[in-house]
Every structure is written in structure tokens, then in C-alpha cells.
Amino acid sequence: MQRLYDFLRRHPTGVDSFWAVVLFGLSVLSEANLQGTPAHRAPLAGAVAVSAVLCLVVALRRRFPEPMLLVALATGLAQLVLDLETSVADFAMLVIAYTVATMGAPWASRLALVASFCAAPMAQLRWPAEHASFLGRLAIVAFQTVPFALAWVLGDSMRTRRAYFEQLEERAARLEQEREAQSKVAVAAERARIARELHDVVAHNVSVMVVQADGAAYVMDTAPDQARTALETISSTGRQALAEMRRLLGVLRTGEHQEGGEYVPQPDVEQIDELIEQCRGSGLPVDFKVEGTPRPLPSGVELTAYRIVQEALTNTRKHGGPNAGASVRLVYFDDGLGLLVEDDGNGAPQELYEEGGADGSGHGLIGMRERVGMVGGTLDAGPRPGGGFRISALLPLKPAH
User: Fold this and answer.
1) Model confidence over 267-283: pLDDT tens digits?
2) For residues 372 and 382, is the Cβ–Cβ distance under 8 A?
3) In contact, 52 and 38? CB cutoff 8 Å
4) Which H, E and C letters describe 213-249, residue by residue?
5) Tens digit of pLDDT for each residue in 133-170?
6) Where do runs of H (alpha helix) occur along 83-133?
7) Which residue blocks in 127-281 are alpha helix, DSSP H?
8) Residues 303, 211: one domain?
9) Which domain holds residue 369?
10) Do residues 116 and 41 both lie within one domain?
């Protein structure tokens, strides 16, 4: 059934042509039966010709609504002039009035409305009802005008409804495009921010390597020349790597200047204690526990862990409510670092985590997933069953390949 419906929607002219043939057959049969009766004076050939033209209007109404309206009006005037009485085929007048009101140009719709109110009075003047009083003829005119008016009103309502749905579809498509664009901008901005932070971490480590290599070259005068050459090579390679990295990522640092021209290392896991003390000082009770044996971790992993805790606690302060509390768990595994941040507050809607970051420059879950993905980890975030929000992450010691 659905296939038939889809087929009919794809071939509207074919459907109209079918009904036009049916209307033409009914009209011809009706005219043939009326021939020879005293009340019917129209010749069969003229009636058939008028019926054929009006049925053509029905067949082509959706392809050429305005021209078919003019053809229908001309045919109606020809009926009046040639004294060809109304027949079954004049039903096409109702059809074209509805069609033009639905999809025709504004001028055509107004013309169809005027013609709808004029058709019945003109027909009654041309072929007055016998043995009917003046009031009776007025009643006949009113009765015959109602179908024309209803056809036009129904068509105009359909036009309004279609325009409304088109606006809704256009608005939905525009909003979808805007969401996609905002999502792409958010991802690009977050990646740029992460790249800047990772750049600082790597630059700091390379700077330390350069300083150590330079110091070794100066103090190890008694070492063999081969060792001195190796240390000088380390220094040279480190300087070249640092310069190249600054050149490649310089666009990400446009407008930013480090104080004194020195790079400052980014936060690590040890500074989470300071972060939690700041949160407690601002009125947010935080329970902090460390499980496992703490040990040095890769700089990228430590930075990611710090930023996730910072993002989660900031959102708890913003959306958890005045009585919210939070807990932070760090678990050192043999092959990675586990994070669990929970709060018992109101529970920020998940879309807030998707749309806004901790300091306005990130994008919540988008930024967290980007950070975790860059170190090859996994992230799980969502509302807690008893209220509040939970964020858990597993950061491996080695990035995934």
C-alpha cells in the first residue's frame, strides 16, 4: 500500500489524467442521456467539446495552474455565450479553484475567488430555474456558490499549512547546519587549545634537555671526546627540535607571549591537591583519595588528568547547587591512571557539558573526549542514578596505536 501511495505521489499528472478521463466519461454519458429532453437544448458536439476542454484542465491543473485557470474561465464564458448549459464536466471549475488557491500565484488565487462568487449568479441569470420565485433563485445561487467558496477556502488553508511546514523544515535544516558548524568550531578550538598546552609541556621538557646537555658539555671536560661529541649532538638536536616545533605550532600561539620568554610547565597530577584546596576554599566540599602507588607519569597523561578534574569540579560549582559535594579518586594501576569524579548536586544536564567548558573556552564532554583520545584513553560521563553527575576516565601509560 505504501508503495502505491509513493508511486501516486511521484506521478501527480498521471493521477489527475486518470480522474480527468473518468470525469469525461461521466460527462459524455450524462449529455447523451439528456439529449432530446425538453429541458436540455445544448447540442451533443458542443457539450462534448466543452467537457473535453474542462477535463484537460483537470489533467494539467498541477503542472500549469495559472494557464488552466484562464482556460477554465474562457470555457465558462463560452458556455454562457453559446448557450451550452452546465454539465458534470463543470466540476472542473471547483477543482481548478482549489488548485490555484493551493499552489497558484497570488493574482490567480484572487481571480479564482472572484470567479467562484460570480459563477453561480451568472449561470442563474443565463439559465434561470423555471417556476421559481425570486427568493427561490437567490437560494439556488447561494447553494451553488457554497461549493466554490469551500473549494477556494480549503485550497488557501492547504497553502498556508504547506508554507508553515516548509518554514519548519527550513528552520530545522538551518539549525542542524548551525549545530554542525558549532560542533566543528568547538572541536577545532579545543584541539588548538590542547595543542598549545601539549606544546608547552613538550617545549619545557626539551628546554630541560638542552640545559642539561649544555651543562654536561661544560663540566665534563675530563670525559672522552666521544662523550663530549655525543652531548653536543644532544644539545644541537634539542635546539633544532625546539625551534622546529615553535615554527610549526607558532600559529597556535598567535598573540600569546610567555612572561620573560620562558616556557612554564603545565599542571600535573601533584597539583590536583592545590586545585582541590582551592575548591574547598570556595565552599565546595571535596573528598580526595589516592589509591595505588603514586609514580611519575607521562606529561600528557598528567595534564589530561588535571584538566578533567578541573573541568568536572568547576561544573559542579556552577550547576550542582549550594549544598553539593564532590569526590575525586585517583587510582594508579600497573598500566595506567584511573579517574573518578562524582558529585551529589542537582546534576547539570548533559547538554551543558557538551556546550560549555569549565572556563568558557572549552566544550565540556567534547573537550574531555578530545583530551582523553589524544592519550589513547577512554571516558565515561553521565548522570548518577541517585542524582548528581559522574565522570570516569582511564588513561593508559602508553598511547594507543
Assistant:
1) 788 889 988 888 887 77
2) no
3) no
4) HHHHHHHCCCCCHHHHHHHHHHHHHHHHHHHHHHHHC
5) 888 888 888 888 899 899 999 999 999 998 999 999 99
6) 91-103, 106-126
7) 134-219, 225-248, 272-281
8) no
9) 269-396
10) yes
